Amino acid sequence: MLQDISTPLSTRAYDDSLGRCITEVNRWVVSEGLRGQAACDLFGGFCGRLLDHGVPLSRGYAALETLHPRWWGFGFAWQRDLDFVKAAQFGHEHATTASWTGGVFHHLAKRARAGERNPCLRRRLVRGPQERDFPALERFFAAGATDYVAELFDDRDGIPAGLGVVYSFMTDRPDGFRPHDMALLHAVLPPLSLAMKAYAGRVNASRLLQVYLGDDAGRRVQDGGIGRGSVERLHAVLWYADIQGFTAIADAAPAHDLVDLLNDVFETLTDCLRQHGGQVLKFLGDGMLATFSFDEDSRAQTCRRALDAAADAVQAIAALNAERRAAGKIAAAVDLALHVGDVLFGNVGAVDRLDFTMIGPAVNEVSRIEALCAPLGCPVLVSADLADAAALPAAGRLMSVGRHALRGVREEREIYALLF
Q1: What is the DSSP string of 16-52?
Q2: 361 has a pLDDT exceeding 80
Q3: How many other CB atoms sit within 10 Å of the CB of residue 145?
Q4: What is the dihedral of CA 116, 120, 124, 129, to 10 degrees?
Q5: Residue among 304, 273, 307, 275 at smallest CA distance from 291
Q6: pLDDT for res 3
Q7: The pLDDT value given to residue 5
Q8: Are strands 380-383 and 334-350 parallel, antiparallel or unpaired?
Q9: 3 state DSSP class of 409
Q10: Cβ pair 357, 313 in contact under 8 A
Q11: Does this model's pTM top 0.90?
């Protein structure tokens, strides 16, 4: 008979042998969880300890949901013969694949959404095709598995919390898992799940900070740089991009088409930055402020990398526009300005609503330089400060386009165009 079972909290008394096993595994799990052990190592060590206590595991698998615009979750596969845990990430598109919608974990997730707490499924694979009612179970049986058990921990007083952890375990022992094995598994999976979720929470916080603040700012916040007015002075190349004629485009384009354009443009620019060591500080409507931090020894090299990123960005945006026009979509050119200077980098705002940002004259000046791109007909303009810092030869990649007044800046500044 097929077993779709739940595992309610038990008050049964275990015999001395089983009780000692449960106590040892739980103590180890709690200790590793408290010291912040990574989920990959935690799960591998857990499977190893089950083996040490006589549970005949041949394969174990754990998967955790995450909070990330690109990734839906990550999984960890352990195999006895390899004694190695293979980690993998899977994107949001995985939720629509047949392997998920027709799988055991999706079946458990539906039961959890219906209010069942910690749904569990067991299949005695050697008892016949009726016990192999999911496609994956046939594959496991063909590979030698005899017994299979899966369990989902994803509830908060019976309400799915959306950040669950799911497990599956298999054995190739002819008579499958024995009652002692099942009792041990059910007793030690709750504390393991708590440790796994604690790790997932830290990873989610780190990833979200990096997604919304950028790598550097995200790390600083996570490391404790959260006090209002907590700023530090940095040397940085400022890289400012703005979409040409965006107001007119926004007036004429449907909202969803506009968002699609912004996403394509920002993804293209960010990819160019990423390849040359820059990072996005923030998106400003149709604009983007990015930075390249440096110390004095790497000043010239960093400025050149920023110029390389700008040159690549112009070419990449041209290619993107060609693709979008061929697909009947709206296209837009991008203007870029580069400057270098000292800035204050840190937390600014209200007590309960802070922004991790950069302030200083250099930030204002780079936006004023970008405003000259259209009048001068140059897609990339560079300040004299950056030109000097890049230490390029006279016949290099920059050409002076004269001295120009920048709004809010007392003296005219010499401006250079990037040559392609």
Answers
A1: HHHHHHHHHHHHHHHHHHHTT--HHHHHHHHHHHHHH
A2: yes
A3: 22
A4: 50
A5: 273
A6: 59
A7: 57
A8: parallel
A9: coil
A10: no
A11: no
Report yes or no: 291 and 238 within 8 Å, Cβ to Cβ: yes
Please give the Cα distance from 235 to 270 (Å, whole number): 21
Q: Tokens in use for 182?
A: 């099942």
Query: Is residue 58 classed exposed, middle or buried when 0-12, 13-18 and 19+ CB atoms within 10 A define those classes?
Result: buried
Type of residue numbered 371:
A
Q: What is the dihedral of CA 359, 362, 366, 371, to 10 degrees?
A: 90
- Domains located in the chain, CATH noted: 3-211 (3.30.450.80), 227-418 (3.30.70.1230)
Q: List for the chain the helix, strand, coil content (%; round to 5).
A: 45, 30, 25
Whether the pLDDT of residue 355 is over 70: the answer is yes
The gap from C-alpha 313 to its chain's centroid, in whole angstroms, comes to 23
Strand ranges in 244-333 using DSSP code E only, listed in sequence order: 279-284, 287-293
**Residue 159 confidence class, pLDDT cut points 50, 70, 90:** very low
The position carrying tokens 């095709």 is 129
DSSP letters, 123-174, are E-GGG-GGG--SHHHHHHHHTT--EEEEEEE--BTTB--S--EEEEEEE--T
Return the number of other C-beta atoms located less than 10 Å from residue 35's C-beta.
8
- Taking CA 249 as the corner, what is the angle to CA 243 and CA 253, rounded to the nearest 5 degrees? 130
The C-alpha atoms of residue 236 and residue 277 are separated, in whole angstroms, by 12
**Start-to-end Cα distance in the chain:** 72
The tokens for 363 are 């930030």
Counting every residue written for the chain, the total comes to 420
d(CA 259, CA 329): 12
Q: What angle do CA 294, 299, 300 make, to 5 degrees?
A: 145
Assess whether pLDDT exceeds 70 at residue 163.
no
- d(CA 177, CA 12) in angstroms, rounded, equals 20
Q: How far is CA 380 from CA 41, 244, 270, 388, 419, in A?
A: 48, 12, 16, 16, 9
281: nearest Cα among 344, 213, 343: 213
Supply the DSSP string of 201-251, one letter for each residue: HHHHHHHHHHHHH-HHHHHHHHTT--STT-EEEEEEEEEEEEETTHHHHHH
Lay out the sheet containing 147-153: strands in order across: 3-6, 119-123, 147-153, 165-171, 57-65, 71-79, 84-91
